Amino acid sequence: MDGCRFKMQLRPYQEEGLQALWSYFMTESGNPVLAWPTGTGKSLVPAEFIRRTMYHYPNQRFLVTTHVKELIKQNFEKLIGNEKQVGLWPSAPAGIYSAGLKRKDILNPIIFGGVQSMVKIPDAFGHRDIMFIDEAHLLSPDETSSYQVLIGRLKKINPKLKIIGMSATPYRRGQGMITDGGLFTHIAHDLTSLESFNQLVKDGYLSPLIPKKTNIELDVSNVSVQAGDFIQSQLQHEVDKAEITWKALQEAVYYGQNRKSWLIYATGIDHANHIAEMLNQLGIDCASVHSKQPSDYNDAALKAHKELRLRAIVSFSKLTTGLDHPEVDFIVMLRPTMSVVLWVQMLGRGTRIADGKQNCLVLDFAKNSLRLGPINDPVIPRKKGDKSGDLPVKICEACGVYNHIKAVYCDPCGNPFSFQVKIKETAGTEVLIKGCDEAPIIETMDVTYVTYGRKQKEGQSPYIIATYFCGLDAYKEFIFPESKNRKYFFDWWRMRSPVDPPQTTADALSMVSQLRPPRRIRVQLNRMYNGRKIPEVLSAEF
């Protein structure tokens, strides 16, 4: 097995993040935050920070805390390693304190632990110099919360305790940024900005998210709001309707037929179970994961999903954080929410990169993008009393498509916006990653059938339009038999016919019934022409 293991290497921005932390502690006295999108490898930071610190200062003692056992295990294995990868420091004096992982190490200089378990015996961990908090946005300002109690007891032992937060969503509902008062004081290194996020996509460190307009959209107009989000019981009652769910899943099955690993979000436990039952009826192997399932069942389902033995998994109140499964390439959003933290965290399950993964398709039946914006430019929660701000989208009067609020031209049709339109929650095309045109978005489509037509512009030679019907979508390819450079046409024709290429467009059209239709095509969905986004057929498979 050792021969199959690989050694982790830091990416350039990970090294920058480490240096930013060192620089911060040299000049500031507060508690910094690393704000990095999901999938960028935040868990490597505490591992390497600890390794380097203890090399120079071996007497330092660390805690790495979080709330989910999967994250505890992931963070621990980045340092120590596992059967698939060599850790950054396999011989590190590290332990785990977590009831869920059935380990209660206390005396180790480095401890990875769950806050729910550690808060029961805070004094037992003694003097600690540095504490990492993963998913730092979950730290409540309430003095009676588990984190606040644990931190308070640790600071009684060491008042100079330094705390480093890590989060893909460094904001909280009703409080704004987590650095706007409270424990955390500064963002030491931020990769969640629009420009940084898009650069990570362009450099291949994050997978693009591909939005699809859905025919079925969930109606939550009768659902009340409490504490900044939909009331869960009402939400499930409105959304968990067999006819609606069945139609939505039929649509999902159609679009997800070539997707390897599905992740579905539900509004409640009953809803999750119903979705799993329907997907199995539709021929998609699926399991539901939630708090009423035995933990052994949930663990086995997640293991099967990660090993690609289980194609789909549906969840309620789980898998929004802590799921490290890069192969997820299809997210079905059947959970409406008003929480931007939850929204971005759920989308983040699809941004990890994996071998052979080109992108992650997202079907937002819940219309969350209309309420909360794209993953790289979300609507940041406002402080209580702050009523400023606009909706994240606006409508195009020409084609009826919704665009980001800052858009100057409509993304699909190129129509210029003359004014901003306030919208209600109605159907639209979601924008999940804003401004990523520089990163090619390529999908492979199964071809149902092909048609060929003639087109001619005034004063120019005629040409052929090949239209590939891929289920509910259609993609056009432009073929020029009479072009001066005929090599492309010759290559195109010879892939489809053993007969020599004709000399004219008319002759070609008279022979198209003899052409071999492609089985699949590769399409770049965000190719730009004259300021408009028009899909381009790149190649065909036969």
SSE layout:
Elements: E1 6-7, H1 12-27, E2 32-35, H2 44-56, E3 62-66, H3 69-80, E4 85-86, E5 94-98, E6 103-104, E7 110-114, H4 115-118, E8 130-134, H5 146-157, E9 162-167, E10 171-172, E11 176-177, E12 186-190, H6 194-202, E13 209-212, E14 225-226, E15 229-230, H7 232-239, H8 242-255, E16 262-265, H9 269-281, E17 286-289, H10 295-306, E18 312-315, E19 330-333, H11 340-348, E20 360-364, H12 368-372, E21 393-395, E22 402-404, E23 442-446, E24 449-455, E25 463-470, E26 473-479, H13 487-494, H14 505-510, E27 520-524, E28 528-529, E29 532-533, E30 536-541
Parallel strand pairs: 1-4, 2-9, 2-12, 3-7, 3-8, 5-7, 8-9, 13-20, 16-18, 16-19, 17-18, 19-20
Antiparallel strand pairs: 5-6, 10-11, 14-15, 21-22, 23-27, 24-25, 25-26, 27-30, 28-29
Please work out how many helical segments DSSP would assign: 14
* Straight-line distance between termini: 39 Å
**Largest sheet features:** 8 strands, mixed
Write down the overall geometry: elongated
Summarize this structure as a short list of keywords or feature phrases:
Rossmann fold, alpha/beta, 14 helices, 23% strand, single chain, 3 domains, elongated, six-stranded parallel beta sheet, 542 residues, eight-stranded mixed beta sheet
Structure notes:
- By secondary structure, this protein is α/β, with parallel strands linked by helices.
- It has 3 domains: 2-192, P-loop containing nucleotide triphosphate hydrolases (Rossmann fold, 3-Layer(aba) Sandwich), CATH 3.40.50; 201-384, 3-Layer(aba) Sandwich (Rossmann fold), CATH 3.40.50; 442-541, no CATH class.
- Helices cover 26% and strands 23% of the residues.
- It has 14 helices and 30 strands.
- The strands form 9 sheets. The protein has an 8-stranded mixed sheet with strand order 6-5-7-3-8-9-2-12. It has a 6-stranded parallel sheet with strand order 13-20-19-16-18-17. The protein has a 3-stranded antiparallel sheet with strand order 23-27-30, with no helix packed on it.
- α2 crosses α3 and α8 (242-255) packs across α9 (269-281).
- The radius of gyration is 26 Å and the shape is elongated.
- The two termini are 39 Å apart.
- The relative contact order is 0.09.
- The model is unreliable at 385-390 and 419-430 (pLDDT under 50).
